[in-house]
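Continuing the batch. This is chain 6 of the set; chains 1 through 5 are on the previous pages. Same settings as before, nothing changed between runs. Recording input and output for traceability.
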Amino acid sequence: MRKLEEVIQNAAAVGEQLMGDDVNGFKFVGNEQSYWNKMLEDAIQSERMNPLDTNWLSENNLPYLDFDYDLWYAHE
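Output for chain 6:
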């Protein structure tokens, strides 16, 4: 399993939620968001490219929430 997939699955397993879209990007919104967003950033950098988009998430059966303006900016 690729590191990026592993980070998303592990975060989901502890209740974190990945949210975003192809325009705004993606981030975790939850109680431990700082930790998981750092893990996400590190995983993306290790991929040498950012495959993170809605198609890739769907193709890999990885959970994410659609972008919600209020929730996104509440977790800045």
